[in-house]
Design a protein that fits this description.
By secondary structure, the protein is of the alpha/beta class. The protein has nine helices and ten strands. The radius of gyration is 18 Å and the shape is globular. The N and C termini lie far apart (53 Å). It has a ten-stranded mixed beta sheet, with helices on both faces. It is 32% helix and 23% strand. The chain has two domains: 115 residues, no CATH class; 122 residues, Rossmann fold. Helix 2 packs across helix 9. The longest helix is centred in the middle third of the chain and has 13 residues.
Length: 274
């Protein structure tokens, strides 16, 4: 009996591995940002690294972006270009959404991290934005259970399991519940939320296209077809907006298409009004 319980627990908690994609893409330019670290200081925290802009004054209130997964320098660079006063906390915890979710399953862990960042930087933070690329959504999912930021950006990274683990079909809505609740607040104009997605299809868990469609269906918002160039050589295919909620769909089902959206981060932050 004990072995049966153990196997069920693993099935529920473990993330199915993604089917490797054979797709490649050479047509679009796939432009990449060049690393140009903004002036300021960087402090290691218990989780992540805090960037404090050079112009930040002790005791002052500044915007804060907390970014999960992808790189350390890119969120700093993109945020600084949008708002030179913004502080940035970058969190890199490895591969897979579970690596990001695990530390924040402890209640008030994120609140403690914010307090640590404020004390280390001798700053106060307002507004506070969360962004996640790819697997970074795992942290944001846990944080939203106890903390409501001013805005959320999900960059080609919102997934959930299928009802039958590892087999395409109906989605498990519980994995999207906190995102749907937040999206409703954004659509009502109370918050801001930007979601981008590619056409990548993992096969063993729900793609960012499928989760986007689920949210739109629950919100009663329809996509509008779009055919235009997006940032950094991307190709936008669809869009949807209501209140402070915005969703943008892009062409591409290869690894370069996935990375395109991370390097276009500054454009998503602009939409967030960082």
């Amino acid at each position: 009996m004990k072995s049966v319980v153990f196997l069920i627990a693993v099935s529920v908690c473990a993330q199915s591995p993604q089917n490797p994609s054979p797709m490649v893409e050479h047509t679009r330019s796939h432009q990449r940002q060049i690393e140009q670290p903004p002036a300021g200081r960087r402090e290691k925290l218990s989780i992540g690294t805090l960037y404090i802009p050079a112009r930040a004054k002790v005791g002052k209130t500044v915007p804060l972006l907390v970014h999960f997964h992808g790189s350390a320098w890119l969120p700093e660079q993109c945020a600084h270009k949008q708002n030179p006063n913004a502080a940035v906390l970058t969190v890199q915890l490895g591969a897979g959404s579970a690596a990001y979710a695990s530390p924040f399953q402890e209640k008030d862990r994120f609140a403690a991290l914010l307090a640590e960042a404020g004390k280390t930087g001798s700053l106060k933070f307002k507004p506070i934005f969360l962004s996640g690329f790819s697997a970074g959504y795992g942290a944001i999912r846990e944080i939203l259970k106890d903390f409501q930021p001013d805005g959320v950006v999900l960059i080609d990274g919102l997934h959930t399991s299928y009802q039958t683990e590892g087999k395409p079909g109906p989605l498990k809505p519980e994995g999207l519940a906190v995102f749907l609740d937040y999206a409703r607040r954004a659509a009502a104009g109370e918050k801001r939320m930007v979601i981008t997605h590619s056409e990548i299809y993992p096969g063993t868990f729900a793609s960012t296209t499928e989760t986007a469609d689920y949210l739109l269906d629950q919100l009663g918002i329809k996509r509008v077809p779009v055919v235009k160039w997006g940032p950094l050589g991307t190709q936008q295919l669809s869009g949807a907006r209501k209140g402070g909620f915005e969703l943008l769909g892009f062409a591409g089902n290869s690894a370069p298409d996935h990375m395109d959206q991370l390097h276009a981060m500054g454009y998503w932050l602009r939409r967030m009004r960082l």
